Amino acid sequence: MSIAALHLVSTRLGTTLALDGVDFSIEAGEFVALVGPNGAGKSTFLKVLLGLIEPNEGHAELGGSRVETIAPRIRGRMASYLPQSRPISWRLDVRDVVALGRFAWNGAPYRRLNEGGRASVDSALAEVDAAHLVGRDMAGLSGGEAARIHLARLIVNPAPLLVADEPASALDLKHQYEALRTLRREADRGRGVLAAIHDLESARRWADRVVVLDRGQVRADARPNTALSPDIVREVFGVARDETGHYVPV
Fold first, then answer.
1. Would you say residue 137 lies in a domain?
2. 60, 145, 167, 240: which one has the fewest Cβ atoms less than 10 Å from its Cβ?
3. What residues are paired with 239 via a beta bridge?
4. How many domains would you assign to the chain?
5. Helices 173-188 and 143-156 meet at what angle, rounded to 10?
């Protein structure tokens, strides 16, 4: 049984048809990469799945229930979400930011969590190579350091589904690798992972399945090498590999 699904979803944002008849499902233990050019509808796809945007047609499900029927706090226990935009507008210690990922469970800052909660925050920081940032204020972190703290905030929630919008953005090459390896590890532990990813080779390397979205429509939903075939990549992204193996415009 799927842990989340979209059923014939169409969504308009103003006059733009952002999603057009989208069907999708994800199972526990599966890492699905969502790829597509800018403006393809990837962020809208994730938000509709989580009930943050109401579709004009069709519906989304979490755990077999229509998402609009699930109370927000319960929804937060069913899916953990890392949005593309992650502003922090007040001064917070990094452990308190990570503890926000557990808000649906106990809604407390790090110092007020029980022993198990504090251990889960510390473990998440270690998972993303950010334990050395403990005691730092978010306002003083680099973009890459902050991105790792937000990734820890995503995984500290024990929800069965992790949804991430560009989880590797602002990261250097080493930490891009480690961020996606972390998500791969979470899938191997039995959680569903759905991540919007720009880099096609990262999607090919880490995901079990790739969904290619183009102008709101699913152009492919298959194993990575099938979904990212040369023909699909050329048609959707307007690039092809040159003789050195790099993607170039066509």
1. no
2. 240
3. 249
4. 1
5. 0
CB 23 within 8 A of CB 218: yes
The token pair that represents 215 in the structure block: 């102008």
Cα 29 from chain centre: 15
What string of pLDDT tens digits covers the 250 residues of the chain?
799 999 999 999 999 999 999 999 999 999 999 999 999 999 999 999 999 999 999 999 999 999 999 999 999 999 999 999 887 777 889 999 999 999 999 888 999 999 999 999 999 999 999 999 999 999 899 989 999 999 999 999 999 999 999 999 888 999 999 999 999 999 999 999 999 999 999 999 999 999 999 999 999 999 999 999 999 999 999 999 999 989 999 9
What range defines the domain where residue 66 resides? 4-84+159-249
Please report whether residue 145 resides in a domain.
no
In a domain, 169, yes or no: yes
Residue from 153, 201, 196, 146 nearest 175 by CA = 146
Tell me how far apart the alpha carbons of residues 65 and 84 are, in angstroms, rounded to a whole number. Answer: 26
Neighbours of 140 (CB within 10 A): 11
194 domain residue, yes or no: yes
Q: How far apart are CA 81 and CA 46, in angstroms?
A: 9
Give me the CATH number covering residue 177: 3.40.50.300
